[in-house]
Amino acid sequence: MAALAPALAMTACGGGGGSGSGGGGVGTGPAAVCVTERRVKVSSAPEVSLQVRDWHRPGIAGPVIVLLAGLGGNARYFDGLAPALASDFSRVVAISRRGYGLSGKPLPVQSATQHYEVDDLVADLKAVLDDLALERVVLAGHSIAGNELTRFAGRFPARVQGLIYLDTSFDYTVDGDTGGEELPTNQAFAEPVATPGDNQSMQAAIAFQRRKFKAWWPPLEANLRDALDVQPDGSVRPNTPESVETAMDTAAHTFSPDYVQVRAPSLVITALFADNRDLFSWLEMPLDAKTEKDAADFLRIYRRARITDANRLVAALKTPHHVTLDNCAHGDFLMEREADVLRAIRFMTWA
User: Fold this and answer.
1) Burial class (CB in 10 A: 0-12, 13-18, 19+), 43
2) Are the CB atoms for 278 and 138 separated by under 8 Å?
3) Considering Cα of 99, then 249, then 81, then 276, what sign does the dihedral take?
4) What is the CA angle 65-100-330, rounded to 5?
5) Is 80 in contact with 218 (CB distance < 8 Å)?
6) Which residues contact 124 (CB under 8 A, 6 or more apart)?
7) β-strand 160-166 against 64-68: which pairing, if any?
8) 249 φ, ψ (degrees, to nearest 5)
9) First vs last C-alpha separation in the chain
10) How far apart are CA 292 and CA 189, in angstroms?
11) How far is the C-alpha of 167 from the C-alpha of 81, rounded, in Å?
């Protein structure tokens, strides 16, 4: 898929809203949600521009919310949630961080994490807010984006009206509390890896990815399409180079956030898995006796660790606002439990 031209800004209105839509808009007529596709230059050395999707519904007053996806995700991940939020926020902005989607992907050369440290991502975020003339925003981040939320709020407190941690971790450098038990190892738990056949076409890639989710949602497909390049023979390949993927993952998991500097009101939303479909959707049934026992033990131990981790995050933020959504998966709870997520966000009164 070709990148956007540097100065391109395209706007579309209308269509259906929510996670069942492609994110074009909500409703019809003057109250429809409009989305503008932008490209914002955030760096000159190296030159990097980011894909930005900007939703608004005419006549809506209120704060601005900025959405950041997790590791490997891009702005299209929010194609369902964003237009739904446009009823409560004057603007809803989703950003594809550098390295992903249609954003620039500078290669790390001088070090394994060059260009992808958390401070690089925070500088990009500030550059986007400056370019869009957004002085103060509510920041919402999924998974590793919690690092960017915490760092940005600590460095630029005047720019942050509120924070929403969407199933993020307290500290990716700290091991989870397993209660002294070891997580069982079982080859069946390994996430499937795409074969050449899985990348022979876009439809084959979609079919492969569907195996890794309980349900396949339009925003997941839109996210996937922006993460793949179509080759002349119709095959596809990830448009994020392996060195960039490694750099982002390494930088994210070696950053220890400082919550002492965070002053903005915060909401923590935790997604808790309850069964194999939440955590190992690719397991083929029926399970053999060993795999069934290993899966039950893994779920029990890992669930404990996730609960403890979420409580650490809530305590560090000193927030009374913590919502736990049970029986859902980390990767797509924003779609499966969209109504619950919206309810939690709408409960907040941003100072």
Assistant:
1) middle
2) no
3) positive
4) 65
5) yes
6) 42, 43, 48, 50, 95, 97, 98
7) unpaired
8) -65, -45
9) 41
10) 11
11) 15
Question: In the sheet that 9-13 helps form, which strands lie side by side, from edge to edge?
Answer: 9-13, 34-44, 47-56, 91-95, 64-68, 137-142, 160-166, 266-272, 322-326
**Per the structure block, which two tokens stand in for 177?**
């509390």
Please give the radius of gyration of the chain, using alpha carbons only, rounded to the nearest integer. 20
Residue 60 pLDDT level (bands cut at 50, 70, 90): confident
Q: What pLDDT is recorded for position 1?
A: 38
Alpha-carbon gap, residue 348 to 269, rounded angstroms: 12
| 8 A C-beta contact, residue 246 and residue 139 | no
Nearest-angstrom CA–CA distance, 100 and 81: 19
DSSP state of 324: E
**What average pLDDT is seen over the chain?**
93
* Its pTM surpasses 0.85: yes
Q: How sure is the predictor about 61, in pLDDT bands with cuts at 50, 70 and 90?
A: confident
- Report how far apart, in Å, the C-alpha atoms of 2 and of each of 44, 75, 226 are: 21, 16, 9
Token pair 């992903």: residue: 100
Whole-angstrom CA distances from 299 to 184, 238, 275 are 10, 30, 7
Return the structure tokens found at 212: 């890794």
